Amino acid sequence: MNVPTISSFIFYLMGMLGIGIYFYLRTKNLSDYVLGGRQLSGPVAALSAGASDMSGWLLLGLPGAMYAGGMNNVWIGVGLVIGAYLNWQFVAKRLRIYTEIADDAITLPDYLENRFNDESRILRVVSAIVILVFFTIYTSAGMVGGAILFKNTFGMNYNVALWVGAVVIVSYTFLGGYMAVCWTDFFQGLMMFAALLAVPIIAMNHVGGWSTAVDKIAQIDIKHIDIYSDMTFLSIISLMAWGFGYFGQPHILARFMSIRSSSEVPQAQLVGMSWMVFSLFGAIFVGFFGIAFFADKPLANSETVFIQLAQILFNPWIAGILLAAILAAIMSTIDSQLLVCSSTIAEDFYKQMMRRDASEKELVWIGRVSVIVIALIAISLASNPDSKVLSLVSYAWGGFGAAFGPVVILSLFWKRMTRNGALAGMVTGALTVIVWKNLAGGIFEIYEILPGFIFCAIAIVIASLIDQEPSRETQELFDKV
Fold first, then answer.
1. CA angle, 209 as apex, 207 and 211 as ends, to 5°?
2. Whole-angstrom Cα distance, residue 58 to residue 47?
3. What is the DSSP string of 254-272?
4. Can you name the residues that pair with 259 across neighbouring β-strands?
5. What string of DSSP letters covers 9-29?
6. If you write DSSP's letter for every residue of 113-155 in order, what string do you get?
7. Residue pair 23/352 in contact by the 8 Å Cβ criterion
8. How many other CB atoms sit within 10 Å of the CB of residue 219?
9. Which residue in 94, 102, 132, 126 sits closest to 409, CA to CA?
């Protein structure tokens, strides 16, 4: 363990904990803890959404996929950019307005219950269960990423590394809540952006420039430079289907809800999409140039390509900062996921089902305890050293996209949609992903989010049309929005 790298890490971690302590002192109620009192500026919301969205897979999983398979994996990035743009363009502003008018909803289950005037609470319960199941899997992916980082940087045992990363992330999420998460995400997003620009440029120059790198990669395997190699129409559509996931990610939708004003959405969209496009290009070329850089000595674990390049190409002080950017990516997603889970338990289960008269202080502490419980479950799921970040992320991403994506879109734009339609779609989407992943995945080489999204949308339409029309009160609320 070299002193400069450790020093950079410690300095970064102390800064994140400092932000957590600052917002701990400013958190007065559950709305502050869960949505920051809807006081997030557009640029901060945008970078926070981007950083919490991309997670460790942007610096570990995606470069690893590019390193292992070549440019045919670029279709994931294409699908993500299209999906993110459409999410900002059509969902962000309308959701921000709807959640405020619909009795100031502060969580996704809260919004769905208020949107459909569901007095039975079944929508809230089912959506909360879906969130807890898939976010626990998603959080475990981040824990794996943190363990890989600490193991490869400091030579730690995998399980020790797993606990070190988890303790840091849980600490500032436990303390500061939403504003701590968003402001740490903001700085982490800037770090990720700088790292993803610097590493591929230096790596390309190190192997002799663009032409030399491409020639060298082609000599290793000509398929690595062809975006269509081993690809069929279905496999391209399957990779691009990652973009469908954006419409149903609770931690990204929470950023839309918390923007200070709907008028700031266009500015946030510009910042968020610019950050995303450059960051994705950077991640893609980290893996691509890594093929040429490690041609003589291939990596045992493809998902360590960014870590290895940072350690080899830069002096220890800069390498420490670049490696901290990986931790930033991991932390920025896990903290958001833990916060959504804690708010789901505090608001959607504890307050609504157990103690309607619970004080704000009590709810905040229930949320904080929930952070620790969910983190412990995620750590147990991440304890296998052979776990792959991209595989875990794809499962959770697909689950959310299929279960919530069509529900959110149609709830915002289709007046005739009913509570039973939302319920049918949610259950159909979630079950399709689980069944497809575990049973049909080996037969049909299609990412499970695609059939899940389609079946969810069909279930919503059929169930809503069979059902009675929404109540007059529900329709008037829709017209008001």
1. 110
2. 14
3. HHHHHBS-GGGHHHHHHHH
4. 40
5. HHHHHHHHHHHHHHHHHH--S
6. HHHTT-TT-HHHHHHHHHHHHHHHHHHHHHHHHHHHHHHHHH-
7. no
8. 11
9. 94
Domain boundaries, the chain: 3-390
Q: Comparing 13-17, 29-33, 242-246, 373-377, which segment has the lowest mean pLDDT?
A: 29-33
3-state secondary structure 146-173: HHHHHHHHHCCCHHHHHHHHHHHHHHHH
Helical pair 61-69 and 265-293, crossing angle rounded to 10 deg? 40
Tokens of 287: 């893996």
Tokens of 362: 């009590």
Residue 462 identity:
I
Q: What pLDDT digit, counting tens, does each position of 306-363 carry?
A: 888 988 888 888 888 777 777 766 766 676 677 777 777 777 677 777 777 777 777 7
Which distant-in-sequence residues (6+ apart) come within 8 Å of 376 by Cβ?
A: none
pTM: 0.82
Report, as an integer, the average pLDDT of 188-207.
86
Rounded CA-CA distance 453/304 in Å is: 32
Strand, coil or helix: 294: coil
CA 477/CA 100 separation, integer angstroms = 11
For the record, the structure tokens of 66 come out as: 């590019």
CA 276/CA 270 separation, integer angstroms:
10
Q: How far apart are CA 269 and CA 278, in angstroms?
A: 14
Q: Name 40's bridge partners.
A: 259
* Residue among 371, 249, 299, 283 nearest 76 (CA): 283
CA–CA distance, 81 with 54 (Å, rounded to integer)? 12
Q: What local confidence, expressed as pLDDT, does residue 140 receive?
A: 83
Least confident of 12-26, 153-167, 242-256, 394-408: 12-26
Mean of pLDDT values over 240-251: 90
pLDDT band at 403 (very low <50, low <70, confident <90, very high): very high
Cβ neighbours for 344, distance < 8 A, ≥ 6 positions apart = 107, 109, 128, 131, 132
Supply 402's token pair: 């299929």
Task: Report the CATH fold assignment for 3-390.
Answer: Sodium/glucose cotransporter (1.20.1730)
Dihedral sign from CA coordinates of 330, 245, 112, 118: negative
Q: Would you say 124 and 365 are in contact if contact means Cβ atoms under 8 Å apart? A: no
